[in-house]
Design goal:
It comes from Streptomyces arboris. InterPro entries: GlcG_carb_metab_protein, PduO/GlcC-like, PduO/GlcC-like_sf. This is Heme-binding protein. This protein has helices at about 10-30, 55-70, 75-80, 125-140, and strands at about 35-40, 45-50, 90, 100, 105-110, 115-120. The chain is an alpha+beta fold and about 140 residues long. It has one domain (about 10-140): Beta-Lactamase (2-Layer Sandwich). The chain has a four-stranded antiparallel sheet with strand order 2-1-6-5. A two-stranded antiparallel sheet has the order 3-4. Helix 1 crosses helix 4. The termini are far apart.
Length: about 140
């Protein structure tokens, strides 16, 4: 008989705390960002757009979160395989189908299990990834 250890899911309170942490990191760097948090099912739990951020940052941050969830790999692990400095990258795959990669999306884990993802948009890709990573590191 197999037993599975229960892992607490990502809650709205977690998502709000992640948004606050990412926006605080961005504000400290003087960058206006939009932040999106999705749960493991891809449902949008929280979204905040800074009024100084460009409107496109809202859609971008959500796409980054969904992409990170689909990839389940930290952006930093893929950075060497893509051209630095661009927001959107295409990675070749063995199936001859390109894989869309968006910098600034970070999957969220609890007890080694994927529980969601956070996406940040509005700064340079490296900045967005840093803000998202800082928030992810604050998740308890």
């Amino acid at each position: 008989m197999s037993t599975t250890t229960a892992v607490a899911p990502l809650t709205i309170q977690d998502a709000e705390a992640l948004v606050t942490a990412a926006r605080s990191a961005a504000e400290a760097a003087g960058v206006a960002v939009a932040v999106s948090v999705v749960d493991a099912g891809g449902h949008l739990l929280a979204f905040r757009r800074d009024d100084r951020a460009v409107l496109i940052a809202g859609e971008t941050s959500t796409r980054k979160a969904f992409t990170a969830l689909q990839l389940d790999a930290p952006t930093a692990d893929l950075v060497d395989a893509v051209q630095p400095g661009a927001l959107f990258h295409t990675l070749p795959t063995a199936l001859d189908r390109p894989l869309l990669f968006i910098a600034g999306g970070v999957p969220l884990h609890r007890d080694g299990r994927l529980i969601g993802a956070i996406g940040v948009g509005g700064g340079a890709p490296e900045q967005d990834h840093g803000f998202a990573s800082a928030a992810a590191d604050s998740l308890v």
